[in-house]
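Re-running the complex after MR caught last week's input typo. The corrected sequence lines follow. Everything else is unchanged.
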Amino acid sequence: DADVTQTPRNRITKTGKRIMLECSQTKGHDRMYWYRQDPGLGLRLIYYSFDVKDINKGEISDGYSVSRQAQAKFSLSLESAIPNQTALYFCATSDMDSPLHFGNGTRLTVT
Amino acid sequence: GEDVEQSLFLSVREGDSSVINCTYTDSSSTYLYWYKQEPGAGLQLLTYIFSNMDMKQDQRLTVLLNKKDKHLSLRIADTQTGDSAIYFCAETPRNAGNNRKLIWGLGTSLAVNP
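Corrected-run output:
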C-alpha cells in the first residue's frame, strides 16, 4: 500500500548498533502502529500512537523506542540491536473507526 | 485470555473454492477481519465483518460468521494462482476500547495448484 511507506525495505546490521526504521503515511490517519512479524509467532504490537503527543507501549516494547515526529511520521529505533530482533517489521495506520492499513515492511537482520 | 486460531496450511486446485477457517475466544468481539499477505509484501485488508452480521459477500469472497460457535470463515470462489498467500484472521475485542489492539491468528498459508 503506497499510502504507507516504510524505509528501508531491507537492512542488515551488527549486534550493538543503533538503527532506525522509518514510516510515513499520506492517508491522513491519526493513529500509527509498529508491529513485528516472526514465523510461528504471528504479528506482535511493539508501540502505537494516537496522535503526535501520544505514545503507548504494546506487547513487546522492551529494546525498542519510537518517535512520532509529525502526524504523518512514526519511527522505530533499536538502541542496541540484538540477533533476536531479526524479524519483519510493519508500520500500520488507522483512524478510530477504520481497519489497519499496512506498509510493505522492513526486513531487518541482526548479525 | 483472548485467542484467535487458524489452521496453518491449505492446498487447493485452481478453480476450486477455498475455505479458510478461524475460531476466536472473545465473545464480545466487535469487528473481525481477513488480511492477505503475499510474499515480500505487507498485509492487505481483504474484508471485514461487524459482529452483528452473519454474512458478507464481496465478489469472489464470502465471509461467514457464526457467533454461537465463535467461528469465522473466508470462502474464495474460483481460486486462482494469484490467491496463493498467507491469510490472517484478526478480531477487535470490545474491551480494546479505542486502541485498535487487534488479536491476530498465526495465518493460513494457501497454496493453489494448477
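None of the earlier attempt is carried over here. Chain A has a mean pLDDT of 93. The radius of gyration of chain A is 13 Å.
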